[in-house]
């Protein structure tokens, strides 16, 4: 880290759709009181349309550009400590992975494909799953993204079988050690 960079200070949640990022983000926000940035919600509010509509009207590339722009904004040196819940595909761009690591302690929430399929089966707001074979699409996306999650994450947590309180406690314990070495 060079002199002009501030130490990382936020807790950043990454992981595949349906892994629990939004739920755990809300739980961390309640426990710590840090502002919560759910990136998908912020983008929807700013664009004044759903992510599915952004994909349909402007394409995935435009949505990914919005994610990168938001990460750059969150990386401002004077930004407060936050809980940042990302979209599942944010790790696809190298520049985003650099920004995520710079923002703070990156936690990869991981769930097995069967759990992801169960959690996302009834959600029509997931444009990447609008396909005849969602299970095959999930498997392919998870395989492609796994090395990128591994690259960016400081910690990987298996979410299947744990409730948000257990996940939050584990993240906070690990984050305490991370931040004590960086502050």
Structural overview:
With 183 residues, the protein is α/β, with parallel strands linked by helices. It has one domain: P-loop containing nucleotide triphosphate hydrolases (Rossmann fold). Helices cover 54% and strands 12% of the residues. The protein has a 5-stranded parallel β-sheet with strand order 2-3-1-4-5, sandwiched between helices. Helix 1 crosses helix 8.
Sum this structure up briefly.
The protein is an alpha/beta fold. Helices cover 54% and strands 12% of the residues. A five-stranded parallel β-sheet has the order 2-3-1-4-5, with helices on both faces.
Strand segment tally: 5
Low-confidence stretches: none
The CATH topology label is Rossmann fold
As laid out across the biggest beta sheet, the strand order is 2-3-1-4-5
Q: Give the topology string: H per helix, E per strand.
A: EHEHHHEHEHHEH
Keywords for this structure?
183 residues, alpha/beta, Rossmann fold, 5-stranded parallel sheet
Mind sketching the topology for me?
Layout: E1 10-14, H1 21-32, E2 36-38, H2 39-47, H3 51-58, H4 60-74, E3 83-85, H5 94-103, E4 104-110, H6 113-120, H7 134-152, E5 155-158, H8 164-180
Parallel strand pairs: 1-3, 1-4, 2-3, 4-5
Helix pairs in contact: 1-8, 3-4, 4-5, 6-7
